[in-house]
Amino acid sequence: QFALAESEWFALKFARKLVAGKIRNQRTMLLRNHEEPRGAALREMKEMVERAERARGLEELLGIEGNGARAYFGEFGGMIKAEGAGDFPFDFEGRNRRPPRDPVNALLSLGYSVLAKDLMISCHAVGFDPFIGFYHQPRFGRASLALDLMEPFRPLIVDSAVLTAINTGMIGSSHFVRAGRSVALTADGRKAFFRAYEARMDTLVTHPLFGYRVSYRRLLEIQTRLLARVMDGEIGEYPVFVT
């Protein structure tokens, strides 16, 4: 891992897979959950997938990922069926963070933090240093490898859990508090979201490489182990998980 972290060719090859897989999964989320996503957004995301697969550098990939995210989050509000109330409507106008300024972004930020923690556990289980990544370059205190592995799972696990929590009424306006410009969850709100998150992690999916059904929680470790096999030269490229 440490040797390959210095290899630009390996980082780029791995990062291409991650970004293309993430945008594919975001596009699938829109097709499955949005009543009528804009055709222009879907076409742009398809184009970003193709561009990601032939990107010539990490900086170019960051731009491609950003364009894909803008198209995706521009349509995200169309997947939210509940309205919210009072000071905490579930109106989503785009991604914001540090701090999140609305209920939906507060849920997304919390979910991504929890998923990064779970992937840190998977990295340790496999024997990786979670702080030495490839697409996310090492920075003090940042679990770069966990963030790398997380990219394709953001929409499938966190975004799905957020939509389920809101659309089924597990999370409501009473679960939020405001502090200055930021919005945060109450203790009861966090508990409610964790229930939605754990339910998503327990969902079974068929792994396209092996053909058997596993939970998303187990899938995180399987994907981490597949990366180890790539590093060991047992398989030629990382088989990113897409639905």
User: pLDDT under 50 segments (min length 5)?
Assistant: none
What percent of the residues sit in helical stretches (DSSP H or I)? 55-70%
Q: Gyration radius, to the nearest Å?
A: 18 Å
Q: Describe the global form.
A: globular
Fraction of residues in β-strands? 5-15%
Order of helices and strands: HHHEEHHHEEHEEH
Order the strands across the largest sheet as they lie in space: 1-2
N- to C-terminal distance: 28 Å
Can you give the mean pLDDT? Answer: 93
Task: Give the count of helical stretches.
Answer: 8
What structural class do you assign from the helix and strand content? mainly alpha
Highlighted features:
mainly alpha; two-stranded antiparallel ribbon; 8 helices
Any overview of this molecule?
By secondary structure, the protein is mainly alpha-helical. 56% of the residues lie in helices and 7% in strands. α1 packs parallel to α6 and α2 (39-53) packs antiparallel against α3. The model has no long low-confidence stretch (mean pLDDT 93).
Q: How would you briefly describe this protein structure?
A:
The chain is mainly alpha-helical. The protein is 56% helix and 7% strand. Strands 1-2 form a two-stranded antiparallel sheet. The chain has a two-stranded antiparallel sheet with strand order 3-4. The chain has a two-stranded antiparallel sheet with strand order 5-6.
Sequence-ordered SSE layout with sheet pairings:
Blueprint: H1 8-33, H2 39-53, H3 58-76, E1 84-85, E2 88-89, H4 103-126, H5 144-150, H6 153-167, E3 176-179, E4 182-185, H7 187-201, E5 204-206, E6 213-215, H8 216-231
Helix pairs in contact: 1-2, 1-3, 1-6, 2-3, 4-5, 4-6, 4-8, 6-7
